[in-house]
Target: Farnesoic acid O-methyl transferase domain-containing protein
Amino acid sequence: MLVVFRYLWLTTAFSLWICVLSADNSSSENEGPKCKTIFTFGYGYRQFFHMSQSSLHPASGDLLFMKFSVKARSDAHILLSPSPSPEDLEPVYEIVLGAGKNTFSDIRRRRRAATKTSAYTKDILSGTEQREFWVRMNHQGMISVGHEGEDLPFMEWQDPDPLLILYFSFCTWSGVAGKWIYDCTSDNDS
Model:
């Protein structure tokens, strides 16, 4: 089954926002995992996904464990939220990979707010190849971000007053296109 949605949002006379979502969940026995794909362009969280609707498999002690890959030249944003359409000042977790022209990454407690922690991550993203990551949050409010295939995070921050995360979303930054692959399952997962 192939589902394609196209959104054209004109925010100003000079700024066009485009978000394309396509999910292809069909696969044969030899194709490997089934994944969802979303394409983003510009800043703005337009599609929110409920955690229970995705195949996030937390390990023991974790509230969430999310694997995904992204292809973008910079500024890949992941939003973790208690609600499906949070207001600008509402508490959320915003994780930015490859900010500052792909030189650093950070974790924020609100959208576009002050950084809680950051890490030097020059060239962490690529505009020509998918790069794989994971995000983990435990019951004590520790948010960790790492490269797929590596156990140790390259960035983490502990929230003293953790949020209950029920939704997630993806976007990039002005002028930046992104391809996100997430929620991969295989026949072995069922």
Remarks:
- The radius of gyration is 16 Å.
- The chain has one domain: 2-189.
